[in-house]
Amino acid sequence: MKQTMKLPIKTEKTIKQLFPDSEAVFAKAAAVMLLKADRCICDVPVNTYYTRIPHTYQYKCGRCRLVVSPLAITPLSRAHKNLTDTLELVCRLHFIKKELSPVEIAALYKCKYETAKRKSNRAIQWMKLALIHSGKTFPNENIKDTKVIRAFSAQHNSLNAAVDSLFNALPSLKDAMKNNSKNQ
Ligand SMILES: [Zn+2]
């Protein structure tokens, strides 16, 4: 493996300590999104009425029975089995300050080329979301991945700062509630 793709041991350890598994990533994301929403669309407070549906990444309102999937409205959508990979990839790109090709990502995470491409997209989308949340504007949608990575790296001088800004940028769970009530 090329030296430039490697994360320092200390950084790798910190990520593993903060997020040992996908559940830890989900818990952190859901906590931020629930807090931002504050209330269900039926107006009860989410912190007392929302319960996790066992063995899923979903919550249900105890009053109106609305079911919401927080991840569905985030760059982590459809990444349920490997939320840690996406987060780790963002931290890796943040650290090396450049793009990795799908071939390199496939080698790192021992996955297929197509899966690697999706991982890469999710990581870039998440960085972009964090940048936009912090007030950074992009002239157009087709901004190059390298530019997103460089801007994200320039804005965060530590791993913890990068992780904080990624989670803080996640939308309010209210957006998921609205989506779901439309579909019902
Ligand atoms: Zn409700």
Provide a descriptive summary of the structure in words.
- With 184 residues, the chain is mainly alpha-helical.
- The chain has one domain.
- The protein has nine helices and three strands.
- The protein has helices spanning 9-18, 22-37, 46-49, 83-96, 102-109, 113-133, 145-155, 159-168, 173-183, and strands spanning 50-52, 59-61, 67-68.
- Strand 2 (59-61) and strand 3 form a beta hairpin.
- Helix 5 (102-109) crosses helix 6 and helix 6 (113-133) packs across helix 7 (145-155).
- The protein binds zinc ion.
- Zinc ion binds at residues 40, 42, 44, 61, 63-64, 66.
Short summary:
With 184 residues, the chain is mostly helical. Helices cover 57% and strands 4% of the residues.
**What is the number of domains?**
1
Bound molecules: zinc ion
Q: Which overall shape is indicated by the principal axes computed on the Cα atoms?
A: globular
Strand content: under 5%
Strand neighbour order, sheet with most strands? 1-2-3
Termini, distance in Å?
49 Å
Give the helices and strands as they follow along the chain: HHHEEEHHHHHH
Helix count from the secondary structure assignment: 9
Computed CA radius of gyration, to the nearest angstrom: 17 Å
Mean pLDDT, all residues: 91
Structural class: mainly alpha
> Any low-confidence stretches, pLDDT <50, length ≥5?
none
> Total number of β-strand segments?
3
For the biggest sheet, the summary is: 3 strands, antiparallel
Task: Please bin the fraction of helical residues.
Answer: 55-70%
